Amino acid sequence: MDEIRSVSTAKLPEIPDNLSIPQFQLDVADLTRPPRHANIPCLIDDATGKQVYFEELRSRTQGFANALSTLYSIGEEDVVLLFSRNHIDYPVAIWAVHRLGGIISPANPDFSRQELEFQLRATKATLLIIYPDALDVSTAAAKAVGLPLDRVLVFDVPNTSAGNLVTVDNLVQRGLRVKAFSERRLRPGEGKTKLAFLSFSSGTTGTPKDVAIPHIAVIANVLQLAAHSKLNEDYAEWKDRRYRPGDVAIGVLPLYHIYGLVVNLHFLLYCAMTVVVVPKFNFEGMLKSIVRHKITHLMLVPPQAVLLCKHPAVKKYDISGIRYIMVGAAPLSDEVNQKLFALFPDAHIGQGYGMTETCTVTSIWAIEHKRGISGSAGQLIPGVIARVVKTDGTLGGYNEIGELVVKAPSNALGYYSNAQATKDTFVDGYVRTGDEVRIAPDGELYIIDRIKEIMKVRGFQVAPAELEGTLLDHNDVSDCCVVGVPDDYSGEVPMAFVVLTVDAANRVKGKPEGLEGIRTSILKHVAGHKIGYKHLAGGVEFVESIPKTPSGKLLRRVLRERAKELKKA
Ligand code: 4UU
């Protein structure tokens, strides 16, 4: 059997390989782009209601680029690490750095000092931009890696302060007064290799690695989505189009994750829509914002969809203006999917599926169907070529089960400075997804299982290898294995199987309270080093040994099954 292509009839336009992302988003008067009327804001700050229009977004980007170039010498290949919640200047920071030839590495602002330090070292970032509430962690991490504190900038947020740090807004204002920066233009073809983002993902195995995402990958995914959505074709009544200029989306997905970054920000702005920027997700707060900003579009992860279906507060708000709900980043149960259909009888509702390494969307529900098929992750978008690799290594056809391996113009280049990991996952221009799938003859893609190591906790990746490393740093742990156990809200949560050191085992022999003490200390140890969603919410189970293959490889599947049984018991 051969490769499987998108069943969409939409035609993918030529993807420009000589444009940087900000040139594509802000400069090119592309006639195929839906027009943005002057009265449609690009962004609205959820907290203050401040609106940012296209020209202002563009000029703030120029101003910030001026300041970064003249005052901080940011230029070719500099990595700027964004350690921030969503903020209306987030795209300004990204695109200013891109205009100078630099690279953005986004990080979760709730990371612990150790997690931030890891990313600062891995990317060799020369500038850090933070959200004010991350001041303590940021300064500690910057000191630890030798990044001078005058190279830490802060987004301004009303009524907060972050020490004496220089604010992005101050630099924008100063930058608007100084001479123009010199734009880093791309030569024809250069968009394919010039790096735009280093986003972290653990891929199919091991600890988090920085995915090297070139400019063309983001531009390609936006154009693929635009083609898939038939944005410029007369396929239906204007009033029922999926994305219309002036529609308003809630931006609760974090912009440091690829789904928020590419779909919620870059694609929706391309559609001439408005994005309401929400720094921190809070369910009732989101309901209020939906009413206040007349939100039409929701992009969510499954736990947020669960809340929408089950939370009692939903009844208090008139959210009938919603006409689109997309859910992705982890499996969505049939039950929740059906409930969404019932709650929003007229809305476009479906799933999207993607990953950091494919620089985002691989499939999404068909534009011809207002509602996706429950259980399906949608159809491959134009430009995606899929292989279904069966366990015997041969290619499967329709309805056969195997690992999904994809080639797309949006694929990342590999893992930054990690040839071995790149070789394992990026094969001849194809990305191994680590997801077991079946593609039906009508083009619907069903995700059957995740065969890679990572867990998805509330849509966030958790790498067992990373937590195992942390556990092994605990004095009483001699061996361990971390697996995900199912959880109604989070999808799954991490659980650890732990083998005690001989010393520790002797110490607690016949003393159950001693063992409980170690359990508590292990839970605390992980909580002290890792962000909340990586904590061992599934608990710690003590075992005599960890099952391994003769070559010493963890038999994770065995323990995953054991964990499920324990959970049932
Ligand atoms: C079952 O999570 C993402 C990207 C999510 C995304 C992107 C575009 C969602 C909707 C959209 O339109 O990226 P990563 O790198 O954090 O995690 C990738 C992994 C996949 O390999 C798969 O295992 O997340 C899982 N995943 C899903 N699983 C992503 N989407 C889905 C889905 N169903 N719909």
Report the end-to-end length measured between terminal Cα atoms. 43 Å
Strand order of the largest sheet: 3-2-12-11-13-14-15-16-17
Bound molecules: ligand 4UU
Percentage of residues in helical conformation: 25-40%
Class computed from helices, strands and strand pairing: alpha/beta
Q: Mean pLDDT across all residues, rounded? A: 95
Quantity of strands, as a count: 29
> How large is the share of residues in beta strands?
15-25%
Give the number of helices: 16
Rounded to the nearest angstrom, the radius of gyration is: 24 Å
Low-confidence stretches: none
Global morphology: globular
Largest sheet: 9 strands, mixed
What's the structural blueprint in terms of helices and strands?
Layout: E1 4-5, H1 21-27, E2 43-45, E3 51-52, H2 54-72, E4 79-83, H3 90-99, E5 103-107, H4 113-123, E6 127-130, H5 135-145, E7 152-154, E8 166-167, H6 168-177, E9 195-201, E10 209-214, H7 215-228, E11 248-251, H8 258-270, E12 274-277, H9 283-292, E13 297-300, H10 302-310, E14 324-328, H11 334-343, E15 348-355, E16 360-364, E17 379-380, E18 385-389, E19 395-396, E20 401-407, E21 414-415, H12 419-425, E22 426-427, E23 430-439, E24 445-450, E25 455-457, E26 460-462, H13 464-472, E27 477-487, E28 491-500, H14 502-508, H15 512-529, E29 540-542, H16 556-568
Parallel strand pairs: 2-12, 4-5, 4-6, 6-7, 7-8, 11-12, 11-13, 13-14, 14-15, 28-29
Antiparallel strand pairs: 1-18, 2-3, 9-10, 10-21, 15-16, 16-17, 18-19, 18-20, 20-23, 22-23, 23-24, 25-26, 27-28
Helix pairs in contact: 2-3, 2-6, 4-5, 7-8, 10-11
The protein binds ligand 4UU.
Ligand 4UU binds at residues 201, 258-259, 263, 328-331, 351-356, 360-361, 364, 377, 433-435, 447, 450, 456, 461.
